[in-house]
Amino acid sequence: MDASASTRIRYDAKTILLHWLTAGLIVALWSMGQTIDWFPRPLRPDARSAHFTVGLILGVVLVLRVHWRATNGRTLPDADPGLLGLAAKAVHYLLYALVIGEVTLGICNAWFRGDSYFGLFSLPGYKPLRDQIEWLHANGATAILIVAGVHALAALGHHYVLRDNVLRRMWMN
pTM for the full model? Predict the structure, then answer.
């Protein structure tokens, strides 16, 4: 199969849905994280709880996505041979690793902060590591956006410069 034929193939609908759901949740979580301190003090615990809830949803979506990809998801041939294909795989694996790490750091952040979850219960808190975990979580989120931005720019470059339809492989019909 030649390169142009391989780029006309699309991922299955569930893979595409999980991809875009992951992207949307990441943007929503980053936005929520950046604006939590804008809330008046009495509402901040609820804003943090909402952020934590969406983070847990991202964790579930990520588990579903990895499971689907490993078992039933359509695997496509590389769109680019050689170094470009290797770079694409590296970025995908890096994104998976960063998101898994970020969800884990988010849980640790809530735990070490001693956050309350919508007033239903409070996590114990651990002040000696609180600031370091919060810093890692905040910067991890920004790192994900940067790598995802490079990923998106590469997809747009394929679409508008190389005109090879790679972007359409992950687009809904």
Answer: 0.89
